[in-house]
Amino acid sequence: MSEGTDSSPCPSPAPSAPFPLTTTAFDEELARLAKAIAHPARIAILRILKTRRTCVCGEIVEELPLAQSTVSQHLKVLKEAGLIRGHIEGPRVCYCVEPAKLDRMKLLFHDL
Description:
- This protein has helices at 23-36, 40-50, 57-63, 68-80, 99-110; strands spanning 55-56, 84-89, 92-97.
- By secondary structure, it is an alpha+beta fold.
- It has a 3-stranded antiparallel beta sheet with strand order 1-3-2.
- Strand 2 (84-89) and strand 3 (92-97) form a beta hairpin.
- The longest helix has 14 residues, at 23-36.
């Protein structure tokens, strides 16, 4: 496994949203997060990113038996769900896990 080529940490984590007050809001949030991780490649990407402070997309592609375009699509789904963050550094996009959102997902699943 290659190490991230960028040594800077990801940006500060986004603040966590308050816990939903209604069952409907709880169910909708949990369903959105569950859908985002409902593919083995996305789970693998989360595992890869969890082990690093930063990661560029090319390194993720090296770890998975998937095409660059497929990995990019999976990264997009995870980013839209708020489970990962990405920031541009020169010609690269560095991705990292969003710890607050990952913790939130764990809490939602636990409270199910």
